[in-house]
Every structure is written in C-alpha cells, then in structure tokens.
From TrEMBL:
<protein>
    <recommendedName>
        <fullName>PPM-type phosphatase domain-containing protein</fullName>
    </recommendedName>
</protein>
<feature type="domain" description="PPM-type phosphatase">
    <location>
        <begin position="17"/>
        <end position="201"/>
    </location>
</feature>
<dbReference type="InterPro" id="IPR001932">
    <property type="entry name" value="PPM-type_phosphatase-like_dom"/>
</dbReference>
<dbReference type="Pfam" id="PF13672">
    <property type="entry name" value="PP2C_2"/>
</dbReference>
Length: 246
C-alpha cells in the first residue's frame, strides 16, 4: 500500500499557502485523511485551513479513548460514516468555540474540507465534503464545483450541526476501493495556456488516476515537477492525498 501526498503554494501567494492537508492512521485498518482550502477572499485563510487540521487531529486522538468515557462507544464497530460525522461534529463545535475565544469574525473561519475515512482491510471508503474539491475512486474522478462560492461550514455556526450536516456537507460511500484520492480545486489551476476540457481531464488523470511508479512516495512531486519544467504555472494552492492499496 502507498500513501501519496503533495502540497504546493500558488504563484499568486508569495508568503502563505491557504491549503493544508492531514493524514492519520486511526486504527490498524482505518486511515483518516483531509484536504482543506481556505477562502482566498476571506481573512488569514492559512490560519483557518491549519485550524481545521488541528481539530481533526484532536478528534483522531479522542476516538480510541471514547470507550473509557462512554461505555457503549466502540470504535471497532463504528461505520466509517459515523467516524466522519464524529470528526466533523467536533470540528463544528471547535469552530464555534474558537470564534468566541479569539473574538473572530466569520471571514476568519472559512475553509473547505474534503474528508476521507478509508478501511484498508475491507476496502470501504467514506468521503464527506463541505465546499468544493475533487475525489477519485478507482480511476473515476468526481469534481464538486460550487462556482467559486463554496458553502463553508463557517457560514452556519449559529445553527446546530444535526440541522445543517445534510445540507452543507455532501456524503459518498464506496465499496471495493483500491485507489482513492482527495484534492483541493487547485489541481484545475495548473495552467500553461488556455486549457481545453481534454487537457484538464489529462492533468487530473496524471495525479489522481495514473498508477504510481516504484518511487511511489515522490510520484506526485515528480508529476508536478515535470509539468512545471514544461511551462505549467500553479495559479492556486494545491493539496492532494492518494491511497493506492493494490
């Protein structure tokens, strides 16, 4: 099994990347991965995407210990979607608390989140997404495009998670997954000149579908460097995590 990742800063962001990514082995068989894209038109978006990552990590540390607090809580029998809901519910609560603690405005808490929970043994995967982004399952790419107006979790902090989770967060469950990727939409901003639909599809395929080489850990980096040398310029931050389990 190979876990590949890449994180690149846009040519338009000289100081900070507004993207962030996270991966963690929750149990022997379950991996938690996420990519975040802070809102470019908001404030201190690099802080927001990192904050999301810290909250997700906190939940991953909490989950194995929850049985000591709640007797009938059993991580080993939880559905992947329930694990994802736990993490996002905690994230939602953490955003509310952070807003109050640091007197933040809504525009300081806006980021997309593309969350993957993957079981390497039974090959099931759950993906939950707030905002836009892409994912690929066994070579099939799905692009969630919200016309540059993502429906961020941060817009809904005055509401309850159970009320907004089905409207604001999209969910997909998959079986028999051998190759899964999650990506921010920066993958579509890697541009050489005017880009046709065919070229866009080809670029997505290079990162999300093409089988990795034996030098798997650097495969995504090698793909990016080859494009960069060929004149492609990244016009938005990019974060990708890919698990190849074959």
């Amino acid at each position: 099994m190979k876990i590949l990742s890449i994180h690149k800063r846009s040519s338009h962001h000289p100081h900070f990347s507004e993207d962030f990514f996270y991966s963690f082995q929750l149990t022997d068989d379950i991996f938690v991965c996420a990519v975040m894209d802070g809102c470019s038109s908001a404030k201190d978006s690099q802080f927001t995407s990192v904050l999301y990552s810290k909250s997700i990590h906190k939940s991953c540390r909490m989950l194995p210990q929850m049985k000591a607090i709640i007797e009938d809580f059993d991580l080993s029998t939880m559905a992947l979607e329930d694990v994802a809901d736990f993490i996002l519910n905690q994230l939602f609560d953490d955003l509310k608390k952070t807003k109050k603690l640091f007197f933040l405005t809504t525009e300081e808490l806006l980021s997309t989140v593309n969350l993957l929970i993957y079981n390497t043994k039974d090959l099931n995967a759950c993906i939950k997404m707030s905002g836009d982004g892409l994912f690929a399952i066994n070579g099939e790419i799905t692009n969630i495009d919200q016309n540059n107006t993502p429906n961020f979790l941060g817009y809904h902090l005055s509401e309850k998670f159970d009320v907004i989770k089905d409207d604001v967060i999209q969910t997909w469950n998959f079986k028999n997954v051998n190759d899964v990727s999650i990506s921010t939409d920066g993958i579509d901003k890697l541009i050489k000149a005017t880009k046709s639909h065919e070229e866009l599809t080809k670029l997505r395929h290079l990162f999300l579908v093409q089988p990795p080489t034996e030098n798997g850990n650097l495969f995504l980096e090698d793909q990016f460097e080859a494009l960069h040398k060929n004149g492609y310029i990244l016009h938005d931050d990019l974060s990708i995590i890919r698990i190849v389990n074959k």
